[in-house]
Amino acid sequence: MKKIILFAAGILLLASTTLFGACQDTNNSPYKTFTMTEGIAHFSFEYSSQYDIKESVSNEDKGISYVTLVGPYNRDAKDTPEIGVIVGSPSSENYAEDKINNLITKFSDDPDFNLQELEQADLLISGIPAKLFVYQERDLGRIIAGIYAGVDTSAVIEVIREVLFTYNSCDWMIYIDSDSSTAEADKTDFDHVIQTFKILE
Which tens digits make up the pLDDT trace of 27-38? Predict the structure, then answer.
């Protein structure tokens, strides 16, 4: 949900939402298919059957569509990986470049943010050029929860992978948030989403 709030900054909170999307499952299949066919963005992708759809919303009046999936709970990390797709009205002409510049500004005074560790790559999503950014940040939600629980969670770090591109007059983000201890394993699930992602006309 954090990603959705950040992405939709400047847009009024949804007064009413309509659920769109379809999930197809085969009994013994390791993957399910999510499809969104209403609103400002039509797309589909396969995702691990270990994930569940947390929320799927498309609101054309507000200019936003998104789906959020959560993976299995990790007892050691006390966290669940989250995969999501967010599509919204364009925020700038250079969406991906502006996002990375905003990251640099955001973390410029954060001693835990090392620009040397930030990864960038070019790739294609459904034939469209996109940018991949990988970075780390402290998970403030779990840190605050740890304070209330009397547990030291000051070292809790999450790894964020974001694929960004602009298509059909919309900004698109495909992302995964993972605990640093499970990020490499979770990357396999994210890679499958990316490899099977299709924009539907």
Answer: 678 999 999 999
